[in-house]
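Run Cytochrome c oxidase subunit 2 through structure prediction, thanks.
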Amino acid sequence: MEILGKEAMKTIKRALMGVLAMSGLLFAGAALAVGDVPGGPAVNEINLQPPATKIAEELFSLHMFMLVLCLVIFVGVFGVMFYSIFAHRKSKGHKASNFHESTTVEIIWTIVPFIIVVLMALPATKTVVAMKDTTNADVTIKVTGYQWKWGYDYVKGPGEGISFLSTLATPRAETDGREPISTTYLQEVDNPLVVPVDKKIRIITTANDVVHSWYVPAFGVKQDAIPGFVRDTWFKADKTGTFRGFCTELCGKEHAFMPVVVEVLSADDYAKWVDTQKQKMAAGQDDPNKTYTMAELMERGGKVYASNCAVCHQPTGKGAGVFPALDGSKIANGPIAEHVSLVLKGKNAMPSWAPTLNDVEIASVITYERNSWGNHTGDILQPKQVLDARNGKLPEGGNHLADAGAAASGAEAASGAAAASGASGAEAAAAGSDSAAASQAAALPANVYFETGKSTLPADAKAAVDAAAAYAKAHPDAKFTLSGFTDATGSAEVNAKLAKTRAEAVRDALKAAGIAEDHIILKKPETITGGTDAKEARRVQISPAA
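Sure, done. The structure for Cytochrome c oxidase subunit 2 is below.
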């Protein structure tokens, strides 16, 4: 008994320590909380948000009614059960009764649950029917879900014709952990949805890419947005203020970065907002027939990029994960037709921007991408060219990787002409030097061929290394990939090790040529099979990183 007593004390002690630890965590969590969000969730809030519509009030009442009803049933059932166990225990001399059935009991446990279900179903059905009644709306707004933002189009009622995108406004410094988070962290946007108070607002939802869900707890509204389908719901706010929600359907890596913010204004303030928006639209109406300057396109393109592209390709253009870098990429420096086609049609994880951005916005963002960071193409894309591209006529030119080779030929011709005309030796040498640099910049991808079974850098590797160095000089932020190749004969492990050693030898040569080591990426050795020239299995390929 003494041993059992000690064990019991240990158990009690451990339980108390656990309770204290949990209490500490709760208090610590409260201390670290940023505070209540205006129009959104509150710290330590365990119930539904305060309702701002009649539907939300009914949902709140239903919630409390169901909770009380379930609590009464719980207390009644378990109260009778525990009382029976205690009052009719064997130690008091009670014996279990033996009976086969009781018609009375079966009738009772059928009728009583039926009555309970009816009591629950009647008010719930009334509320659900009211939630689906979208007729006689004062304002109709189309809500389109994108990865990862919301698009709002006022299609009927006061404000008809107004449209805009609503994007997360929380600074990247906060989401990246470089600055403390604010009270409205991940719950603030650049353009909130604005509606009038005491007016029935019909919301039509759809999506451009994947399934999203538009949810505002204070309104009692949650409606999925599905690509290719149109759903609708409604709300009628009975108080002014700012109300916050979020996407409630997992829609990709930035799912948490597409909040919903609704501003409810008085009738007069809403009318003023509509007038202001229409004046802005009239003043800032994009003219697709205008010829824009580089400065105009770059300024507009920077805003379009920050709102639509930076979330994946990063503000620095360096890319992240499956989203490739634009800085120094083949897309931003290659043929402009491929760049335009990719933006209009999309590819893999990148959506088509044709239905989302107008011709001026697409022309601006492409011009911005081709002339920002380490990209200095000088290309200008006009809206008229985007319109032509939509109709199948893609713009020409812009292949600066190939143009470098053409420049090299021109430089060589100029060099020969200078020498033939008796130009000074210094001028001819300078022309020849520029020619070589341009030629080397255009020579990528370049191959270094090794002797069979050896990893010593061959003498003719200098041309490939010089070409990479020239490319790095022309594109200071560019990175390079080194791919070592092997054949399928012999030991796969030995071949892979040899390919890696060869790639490291080329890497050391690139470093000696002035290319930073963090700009050199060693790729996994690749195996060549199927009767390919054996020479190709003894090479290391130098390529600009995509």
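The longest helix spans residues 54-87.
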